Amino acid sequence: MLLLDDVYKVYGKKKEKKVEALKGITLSVEKGEIFGVVGFSGAGKSTLIRCVNLLERPTSGRVLINGVDLLTLSPKKLCEQRKKIGMIFQQYNLLHSKTIAQNVAMPLVLEGKPKAYIKEKVTELLSFVGLEDRMNHYPEQLSGGQKQRVGIARALATDPDILLCDEATSALDPTTTQSVLDLLRKVRDEFQVTILMITHEMNVIKDICDKVAVIEGGKIVEQGSVMEVFTEPKTEIARSFVRTVLNDETPKGIKDWMKASNGKTYRVIFKGNATNIPLLSDTAKKFSVDLNVFHGMVTELQGQPFGNLLINIQGDSNEIEQAVEFMKSQEAIVKEVTPNEF
Ligand SMILES: Nc1ncnc2c1ncn2[C@@H]1O[C@H](COP(=O)(O)OP(=O)(O)OP(=O)(O)O)[C@@H](O)[C@H]1O
Prior knowledge:
342 residues; alpha/beta; four-stranded antiparallel beta sheet; 12 helices; 14 strands; 37% helix; 29% strand; binds adenosine-5'-triphosphate; ATP-binding; cell membrane; nucleotide-binding; translocase
């Protein structure tokens, strides 16, 4: 439903001042999907999200929404399409001289909607975001999380198909971040809104996104389902983002312990079906091997348990091989780790 096709954005005209901010971005987001783009500062995230609603006009490429290329539209048609794209910002961008209700009403006032319609819609949206009792307050009387709720209500006023989130939780503390992410999930679930979010926080991706793209130097270097990228990141940058959440760095003392141990060491990643069975104890019962967990964690990814363990297996090499094959047959990802990879 949203497709960016080979999008380039070059800032500046003179050769020496040219900045190639996007270098051929292609990504597609299905209806009702929450798609995250993660990258470090300067990677091109803001440019990318601003190219979707043409706040920045791509230098080349296509931006298609439901098959319509926005770059080919007349100004009038583009204006109509833009109503179907809501946006929320890191700094909320609320009008401080207006009340909460007036802020949410603003897009509808600009559209010339009837007063009665606006009143009903604003009340409905403020109730949806849990701020119906704050209608007549001003932005400065609200906390950061409440301001972002107002931003979300305002973005939903025109019943958008797509919601763009520009670092929507980066200014918030972890608890407030969680409540805003929960609200965004509710927006998707209740209104079937497609959400494209940019962030530098992998935690946000882990908590809410279905798919993720990693952007570096204006290019998407890796993309896939959140489960795929967290389970088997293919690039060093994706691995480093995953590490910020899963923290699989092995402490030195444990590395020394691993090096001093007999047997072989494996990284075991289990998810989905593999989390429903006692994988390690089943393996130890079935084969003549001793299993020892060196390091790791079990967390939750997209509502499912997700484990990432470093284990030591001791025993006859044939038994070890069969034990590994058994774990793989239970949908675990099992890879031998040599001492220099500890
Ligand atoms: N209006 C502009 N004119 C010239 N260069 C720009 C402009 N906006 C962004 N850039 C450059 O384009 C590149 C990508 O910037 P962009 O803001 O898209 O990255 P980002 O990933 O959003 O970074 P941050 O998280 O720090 O905002 C950077 O090199 C930046 O300096």
